[in-house]
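Request: When convenient, would you put together a sequence paired with its structure tokens?
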Amino acid sequence: MGIYLAMYLRRVVEGSAFASSTMVALVVAVVLLVLVVVLGATSFRWVKRKMKASSWLALQRLAYVFYGLVYAHLMFMIGPSAFAGAQPALTNAVVYTVLFAVYAFARVWRAAADRRERVKRVDTVRDQGFAEV
């Protein structure tokens, strides 16, 4: 992420022109970078110990925003080429769309199964070392 961000930021500083889809993808990439840092930091046990379990769970919901933005970023980057008929980009767009759709379906399926089993959220994070539930 850092290598691509540096490359694009250098082009912005130099005043290079971008397609509008590339500029949107760059903004989305910066948001993704912030999200990955926040979500990554909360995976450390010493950070979790300073948080309430309910706060950690709420923050982890941002992972769904992250995955959605990853898909959007990919489509902003390869979408224009795919819509123009470039076969490799079109193939990539179809593969990414299928993968993200399968993930979304599996996640909704799992959430429904958890609801049927009445899994308590707090029970799922007790072993994570939180000071308070």
